[in-house]
Amino acid sequence: MTSLRQAVQDYLSLRRSLGFKLRCAGALLLKFAAFAETRGTEYVTISLALEWATLPPHQKPATWADRLKAVRVFARYQQAIDARTEVQPFGLLPYRPPRARPYLYTAEESKYPPAKPGALRLLVPQRGLIATDQRQKPKPRETAARTVPSQSQGW
């Protein structure tokens, strides 16, 4: 059997050759392999993955879930090669991102339109987009009229 570090490197080279970047997941998996080596483990177990994922106690639950997800995806791959590998079940470290708080307009605000056209802007910082009514719409393309051969023409 190969070492866990070698298995991680083989997995990353395979996935990257298929076009995946795996920047964050790759770094996390290499850290996991180093952690497993310090524990003297040659294969992935649920308890080892859970211990590593929650290792930084000051981190948020979202970080723990991301760390465990990286190991889970690798473990699914590795289980085909090494039968001793245990795949972590979904929901072991459940995390739901907090929902954005909506802005509710008051009755006074909803009565009056903006002072001038285009004054109302909607910002979407997660996507880096600004949606506004000041954008110019693209002109529709003119399409050439197609002639459809009729049966009377003998086509």
List the strand order in the largest sheet. 1-2
Uncertain residue ranges: none
- The span between the termini is 69 Å
Major sheet attributes: 2 strands, antiparallel
Structural class: mainly alpha
The total of helices stands at: 5
Radius of gyration in whole Å, from Cα? 27 Å
Q: Considering DSSP H and I runs of 4 or more, what fraction of the residues is helical?
A: 40-55%
Write the layout of secondary structure elements.
Blueprint: H1 4-17, H2 23-39, H3 46-53, H4 61-79, H5 107-111, E1 121-124, E2 129-132
Antiparallel strand pairs: 1-2
Give a brief outline of the structure.
With 155 residues, this protein is mainly α.
Task: Describe what this molecule looks like in 3D.
This protein is mainly alpha-helical. It has a domain at 4-79. It has helices at 4-17, 23-39, 46-53, 61-79, 107-111; strands at residues 121-124, 129-132. The protein has a two-stranded antiparallel sheet with strand order 1-2. Strand 1 and strand 2 (129-132) form a beta hairpin. Helix 1 (4-17) runs antiparallel to helix 2 (23-39) and helix 3 runs antiparallel to helix 4. It is elongated, with a radius of gyration of 27 Å. The model has no long low-confidence stretch (mean pLDDT 81).
Keywords:
2 strands, two-stranded antiparallel sheet, mainly alpha, 41% helix, 155 residues
